[in-house]
Amino acid sequence: MQNMRKKIVAGNWKMNTTRPDGKELAKAVAARAAEVPEGVGLIIAPPFTHLCCCGKQLEGTKVELSAQNCADHAKGAYTGEISVDMLKAVGCQWTILGHSERRQYYGETDEKLVEKVKLALGAGLGVILCVGENLDEREAGKHFDVCATQIKNVLYNFTAEDMQKIVIAYEPVWAIGTGKTATAEQAEEIHAFIRKVLADKFGAAVAEEVTILYGGSCKPSNAKELFAQKDIDGGLIGGAALKADDFIQIALSF
Ligand code: 13P
């Protein structure tokens, strides 16, 4: 009964593409989506400004729409923020939360993430929660502790039922945009560990069902080896998600 959990390849476009470029990219991904096996989910996360128009390109395909972040309040006087209801209303099914770039540059804390996850789930959005250590932490051998703390601080506030709507992305910061991928063994070791941290709280059966993605310089040339690992259920793709052919090629790597 192993591996009943969903496989997913998600593209995090970050702050790339203008609206016309984004529309073309979404259209190109949508055009090839049918090539990807039924059991593999596809998600794209364009910038806020073109969620709506990218979403239109995905209609009638299996590709789902995600935001890259959401506000930690439901509504009101929070200039420049985007609420979960706004995301839902433009057709998002998902939001990425806790990306290392948000933790590093925008003061995203685990406390804020608890609020964001609550709001997202409450609005009916799925959550892709990112965790991962930086280079100093990896070199100091603290990567297990860092990931465990991030998971506990955020997800231990939720229920086993909530976990059905939550995907985890392990993204070692030193591998993001650097061309330096974690080896399949390094990634698998942490993925298996994350599953154990989840099992400690929610039980082994729930932990077995959680989709855990790898992110960090994942590309067509290394996706196959990464995805062949027992606890790696797909990828959260940055740079390579900006080319439809590469993104689809990655999704064909299971
Ligand atoms: P790269 O694939 O560009 O390394 O980015 C990974 C990432 O941060 C996805 O969220």
Short note summarizing the structure:
By secondary structure, the chain is an alpha/beta fold. It has helices at residues 19-32, 51-58, 84-89, 100-105, 110-122, 135-139, 143-155, 184-202, 204-209, 220-227, 244-251; strands at 7-12, 40-45, 63-67, 94-97, 126-131, 166-170, 212-214, 234-237. The protein has an eight-stranded parallel sheet with strand order 7-6-5-4-3-2-1-8.
Describe the structure.
This protein has 254 residues and is α/β, with parallel strands linked by helices. It has one domain: Alpha-Beta Barrel (TIM Barrel), CATH 3.20.20. Helix content is 42%, strand content 15%. It has eleven helices and eight strands. The protein has helices at 19-32, 51-58, 84-89, 100-105, 110-122, 135-139, 143-155, 184-202, 204-209, 220-227, 244-251; strands spanning 7-12, 40-45, 63-67, 94-97, 126-131, 166-170, 212-214, 234-237. An eight-stranded parallel beta sheet has the order 7-6-5-4-3-2-1-8. Helix 3 (84-89) links the parallel strand 3 (63-67) and strand 4. Helix 1 (19-32) runs parallel beside helix 2 (51-58) and helix 5 packs across helix 7 (143-155). The longest helix is centred in the C-terminal third of the chain and has 19 residues, at 184-202. The protein is globular and about 45 Å long. It starts with 6 loop residues before the first strand and ends with a helix. 45% of the residues are buried. The mean pLDDT is 97. It binds 1,3-dihydroxyacetonephosphate (13P). The site of 1,3-dihydroxyacetonephosphate (13P) has 14 residues, from strand 8.
